[in-house]
Design brief:
The chain is built from 11 helices and 2 strands, in the order αααββαααααααα. By secondary structure, it is mainly alpha-helical. It folds into 2 domains: 72 residues, Orthogonal Bundle (Arc Repressor Mutant, subunit A); 154 residues, Up-down Bundle (Four Helix Bundle (Hemerythrin (Met), subunit A)), CATH 1.20.120. Helix 4 packs parallel to helix 9, helix 5 packs parallel to helix 10 and helix 6 packs antiparallel against helix 10. The radius of gyration is 21 Å and the shape is globular.
Length: 256
């Protein structure tokens, strides 16, 4: 089975880079539906019609993706794409591939529902357990957000630092293991929001400040309550921006 045109552009570089690129392209084909559940994964000879891929590189890529639940291999059945129910959805690579493939509203709602479970509790624990240095770092991240234009690379860096500091301050190693899921979702959502004005940004910025202040005074209940509002508002905003992006894509496709 061959991959659709565009799934495997020219790959080059050293074997390590080639491995990561082959894994990336096969994974993207699976999560986008170009290679549907149960379909055979193209072997290295088929991949070789696009680029030279050694058998060892191909096998390592397949093994890597099998570990993430995207591929299953059975005797006399071959190597096939797994159903979504088998994917490790919290794996940052799997999450990134799904979001890059475009996602859908159900998936976005699921992610934010998970964030709504995690982040308010993280904020509460951070307020109760943070060190003075962590409280200062959280306020500095907010101040960086406030002092940079919305949705610029600098602003995004401070926004990500705010949420990462909050998670690191909660003092719970199990919750901290979910950092990658939160950060990957946040980075993707921020990427939808280019063109946002200072007025559009004002409410979210004020909520970040209130969370930082609540953490500083060790007010866990308030930090948690504000984080609930912040995550819910982010969901509605992300869905709105997602719908706009989808509509622009439809219009652009129709015009071709």
């Amino acid at each position: 089975m061959d991959l659709p045109d565009g799934i495997l552009p020219h790959l080059g570089g050293n074997p390590e880079t080639l491995f990561s690129q082959v894994a990336e392209r096969i994974a993207s084909a699976i999560v986008s539906g170009a290679v549907p559940p149960g379909a055979l994964i193209p072997d290295e000879s088929v991949l070789g019609t696009h680029v030279p891929v050694s058998r060892s590189v191909y096998r390592e890529a397949v093994k890597f993706l099998a570990g993430k639940g995207l591929i299953e291999s059975r005797p006399r059945s071959g190597t096939r794409a797994s159903p979504v129910s088998s994917w490790n959805l919290l794996d940052p690579d799997v999450l990134r591939w799904q979001l890059r493939a475009g996602g859908n509203e159900k998936f976005i709602n699921d992610l934010y529902e998970l964030r709504a479970f995690i982040e308010p509790n993280v904020a509460r624990l951070a307020a109760e357990r943070r060190t003075p240095q962590q409280a200062e770092a959280l306020m500095r991240a907010y101040e960086g957000m406030a002092s940079t234009p919305p949705m610029t690379p600098e602003n995004t860096r401070f926004d990500l630092a705010f949420h990462e500091t909050l998670i690191d301050s909660c003092g719970n190693q199990a919750l901290m293991c979910l950092r990658s899921m939160v950060m990957t979702t946040l980075m993707w959502a921020l990427g939808l929001q280019h063109g946002k004005t200072a007025q559009d940004y004002a409410a979210a910025l004020a909520d970040h400040k209130r969370v930082a202040e609540a953490v500083a005074r060790k007010d866990g209940a308030t930090a948690s309550a504000i984080m609930i509002v912040l995550v819910n508002d982010a969901l509605h905003e992300t869905l709105e921006m997602f719908r706009r992006a989808r509509e622009r894509h439809k219009l652009a496709t129709a015009a071709e």
